[in-house]
Amino acid sequence: MPLTDLPLSLFRRTLGCVGLCIALLWSSLGAGPAWAEPPREARIKAVLILRLLKFVDWPADNTARAESLQVCTWGESPTEAALQSLQGQKIREREIRIRKLGTPLDTRGCHALFVSDSARDVTPALLYNSGSSAVLTISDMPDFNKRGGIINLVRQDNRIGFEIQLRYAREHGLQIGAPLLELARVVD
Q1: Domain boundary assignment for the chain
Q2: Burial of 110 (0-12, 13-18, 19+ CB in 10 A)
Q3: Whether the predicted pLDDT of 153 surpasses 90
Q4: Coil, helix or strand for 124?
């Protein structure tokens, strides 16, 4: 290497190291890239949501033709991101497909809908008149059961529990299995 190229090469390496240090510092402050792993609580909620699906029966016409179970998400949250990472897993021999919904809400093809806490003005009409009425609605927003939701994920001490609004499930043709009802706080 010629002696005249040495300072430019040294400058480039220094600039590269500074850039790497800034990127590492930035990600350690929590403002990391979109592919950063969701927080532990969000990952636990995502796995719990998929496990809940094992104990729900949809009307025969809703699942007879479906090769996969569509879990739709609405809004932005760490739980929504964690659900995306579980795409492709199987429940009852059906592959899980995660689909992010926009506005206006269209739930056609959705078997389950996770509503993020960032969603506003949630009502039963919005949840069930936006495509599919036989959709299992799940959220971790406060008072979701009072807004028309079927399953509300709630923090209980150091655990994640859930409440089930049985009336909305029945109104929309969903059968919640007994093992799930035994573990839940049933709101009717």
Answers
A1: 1-36, 40-187
A2: buried
A3: yes
A4: helix
Class of domain 40-187: alpha beta
Q: Do residues 116 and 72 lie in contact, with contact meaning Cβ atoms separated by under 8 Å?
A: no
Summarize pLDDT for 10-65 with one digit per residue, the tens.
444 443 433 333 333 334 344 444 446 889 999 999 999 999 999 999 998 766 56
Which amino acid is it at 25? L
Report phi then psi at 88, rounded to 5.
Answer: 100, -15
CA distances from 186 to 75, 109, 151 (A): 26, 27, 9
Q: What is the pLDDT of residues 103-151, one digit of tens each?
A: 888 999 999 999 998 887 888 888 888 888 899 999 999 999 999 999 9
What phi, psi does 72 have (nearest 5°)?
-95, 150
DSSP character at residue 116:
P
What does the alpha-carbon distance between residue 104 and residue 6 come to, in Å, rounded to a whole number?
59
